[in-house]
Amino acid sequence: MKVTTNADRLVRQVLAGEIWPPLADRHAYRVGPDGQPFLLPGMGGVTLDVHCGDPATGYASDHLEPGASIRHRDPGANMALQFLTCVGNEVRVVSGPAAGAVGHVIGQHAYVLADFAAAEGPGKSDTAAEGPGKSDTAAEGPGKSDLTTGDAVTVLAVGQGLALPDHPQVVVKNCAPGLLAAMPGGTRPDGRLEVHVAARVPAEAIGAGAGMASEYANTDLMGAYAGLGPDLSLGLEGLRIGDLVALADADHRYGRGYRPGYLTIGVISTGQCMMFGHGPGPSTLLSGPASAFCLVDDVDANLASWLHAEVAP
Amino acid sequence: MTAGDLRLVTVNLLGAVEHPALDGSPYRIDRDGRPYVPAGDGGIVLGLELGDSVFALDADHAAPGACLVHADPAARHALAAYACVGNEVRVRTGAAVGARGVVLGKRGEEGRVIAGFAAADLARIRPGDEVSVRARGQGWRPPGLPPEVAVMNLDPGLLSVLPIDLAPAGTGGGAGTETGAQVVAVSVRVIVPSRLAGNGIGRPAAAWDLDLQLPPPGPDGAGDVLLGDLVAVSDLDVRHNMGYRRGWVTVGIAVHGASPLPGHGPGITPLLTGPAAALRADAHAAGHVGLTAAALRLQ
């Protein structure tokens, strides 16, 4: 993105985390939109097979978190890890057989979510070599299929505090300077900020996550329950993991709320949900008055176009 | 035999009057980015009553009465889930021992029950006082309710004092319309589009209120909502978590006031949810009368 930033004034911090297991309780089942009980994986641990560029929905999964799900064991340190980590930050595995593998943060979801290039071997899916941005995945050495719960990772955190001096009404959240630089668009002659998005989301879709801090978890989108009734659909079944999306009438500058005439840009960091009022979720990147933005519809506006390539941290 | 044919059980629950709690910083950040100190978010709030505007005070989620909690998190969730609007409560300890109150609503996340009292009783209550809640209502279905409509969080004894009509004129009522469909009609203050739903969306309606991101009323009071009013939300289904469903309606009762936080606002405790063809919400911006202190004998 061709835009002036304060990136040279940001600090970089080394943060530690570990891959955190999926969590369940002894009652096991949750309940879907029509009352259907379900027990489905997706949240926590290491989820193989789904990467940026792949469909967000259509899996037998709930709260699908692609890649590794990361927390810190200490509650206070964990909140710092969740708040300070930004989309596009580098994540390096430092213990276990996958030590040395490098991935990137794709969002937050009460876990930091890191996607790693699909490795050769049992963990590689049939689809992993097909989607956009996947051609570089085979030769990177240790990969995601060797990761598991408890493996330690290092996050090189940079991005909170990123500002756009030429766009004072636009607030940047959770966005690594390197990711912003890699995105298309930028300052237009008319002064607006051009942002490319793969999908536009109506205000009716905003689900769980409304009212929470913009730097934590994400905003679940309703209306993307693949395979369920048309009365539940808001036309969002085509979302992909990593898509940049525009949320209409959403003001995420100081938390997540409804405000007519505002706009929020997010990146889809989680996928399929069966739980009602939940769904694929964007982590917040940019927010401000709609008049400050110029949106360009672009099917390639996806993290797969920029991550695992040469994104500077 | 359906759930509606089964006999209700009543459960005595123990609540403790909440003390407000803050973390290390006194500040929260409002929707315009300004720091503020949250007053009225839980605990005992004096001077706010049913019939007051949800925008009456410069406070954060202020509720008309005392919030009840339990020290054990699981027991606290059960307290919130089983308590129903209209349940009787009784103070068991402290200076207000013996005082009678009524459950007015509930709040989510960790779980809170909002209990209303006569003003003189409320003024004698202190955080930590024990309160017994006579919980009944979950699992209840009133006879004549259309089968597609679900009821929740409602004491059976409260049905007759709320503007809920199980046999609305012109529909044939419980006997069915000309198309044979049953309809329940509810008078509400306002019908709100689902895009205004904030905190509470995606959460269980039996244990969590739904904040509505309502704008403050105009200079003439137009668009105001009063505590105790019934409010309808279109395209919202709250049977299995609260979420978007086209053609559906949810009716709840306004239980707490506005909040400066983005994504928050006046909250409703859901009471009825169903397809719009079976659950008819009629907006009466001026003439609506919801739950009142007089109807609850709290004056």
Provide an overview of this structure:
- The complex is a heterodimer of chains A (313) and B (299).
- Chain A is mainly beta and 313 residues long.
- Chain A has 2 domains: 11-157, Thrombin, subunit H (Beta Barrel); 171-305, 3-layer Sandwich (tm1086 (SG structure) fold), CATH 2.102.30.
- Chain A has 2 helices and 17 strands.
- Chain A is globular.
- Chain B is mainly β and 299 residues long.
- Chain B folds into 2 domains: 3-135, Thrombin, subunit H; 150-283, tm1086 (SG structure) fold (3-layer Sandwich).
- Helix content of chain B is 5%, strand content 30%.
- Chain B has helices at 73-82, 119-122; strands at residues 11-17, 28-29, 35-36, 66-69, 88-91, 100-107, 112-117, 130-135, 150-151, 164-165, 184-188, 190-192, 210-211, 230-237, 243-256, 267-275, 279-283.
- In chain B, strand 14 and strand 15 form a beta hairpin.
- Residues 172-176 of chain B have low confidence and may be disordered.
Compact overview of the structure:
The complex is a heterodimer of chains A (313) and B (299). Helices cover 5% and strands 28% of the residues of chain A.
